[in-house]
UniProtKB/TrEMBL annotation:
It comes from the Bacteria. Pfam families: SBP_bac_1. InterPro entries: Bact_solute-bd_prot1, SBP. Signal peptide: none annotated. This is ABC transporter substrate-binding protein. SUPFAM superfamilies: Periplasmic binding protein-like II. It comes from Coprococcus aceti.
Amino acid sequence: MAVGDTITIEYSWWGDDSRNQYTLDAVDIFEKENPEINVKCKYGVWNGYEKRQHIYMKSQETPDVMLINYGWLDTYSSDGSGFYDLNTLSDYIDFENYTEEELAFGTKNGRLNAVPIAFNTETFYYNKTLWNSYGLSIPRTWDDLFDAARIMSKDGVYPLGMTKKSLFFMLLSHYIQTTGNDPVKSDGTLNLNKEQIGDMLDFYKELLDKKVLMSVDSFNRNAFASGEVGGTLAWVSDAGGYCDPLKENGYDVKIGEYICEPGAKSLGWFVKPATMYAISNNTEHPEAAAKLLNYLLNGEEMTLRQGTEKGVPISSSALAVLDEHDMLTGFEVQADAMRKENSDKLSIMAPILESEDVYGSFKSDSDYYLYDKLSRDETIDRIYSDMYKK
């Protein structure tokens, strides 16, 4: 490449307006520091991004650097060949910021497909003011939730509300705690039979019937912020999005323990990368892509703008920057501390559990039973078929 020539690489991510703006600002600085590299940014909200990513992967036209979801390693790179092997770019990416265990989350068949940005665990967040007003302690067991529902429901208040993905992981944790069974086989494939799916469906219906859980279709973040529900379950990386509005509305926030059945052999809750960065297997400019990826993960300017918005960063250099600038504060940091305190009890999530076919099918198919469209057995058959479809 002649002096003064530039190359163009594409970088894609999903997010809201705030994420988009700080990312664009950070990329501008990267381009100034690397005048030979022009970065074309492609971004959008989650749903549209996910659909476009599927098209990109199928057509082999993926952006050079991309933000990916953990589950996509299983969907698009089951044999490890779906993304560029980052091990070969160690001259440009500072892997000293990560342990082998941390990088293992992005490794498939010996190929480092992606680097995790932060860790995520489904975590309980409570409106402590509301619970105190009923003379109730923050729940620690499933029975605590049912006891609270008997009191709160008289005022039309639910102990919990959450999204469909969080719902699935909560039901899964209860299943693991009460049975001791692993929902995933050693080869990473699903390990739920019809009887076990039926047990999860029954517990889901009980949560709804006894007013423990607000309907997933009715729940949104405002329901938590306004006090319609006493608590929610969400990722560590989403802690601020749920808890900051609650605090702004004058309520006290409490991060709760992972709900557990007394005497359970396993805690039943999972840890996984929040999001990850990968490089296209078809990139024509791997070195330039690696420079950008390293900047996004470890660069000071990106770190200062991103803060803990994507979760508490894993990169040791990014953590050092945030610590130096007194930026390791907020609900994400508190939730991540809960994760660290329980790290020896949390199970590593298998990517298959984040498949839309799995968690999405459970919720949508369950509606047929909950709204009397299908019998219990017919609904279980439908869930099983959709979870295991190829």
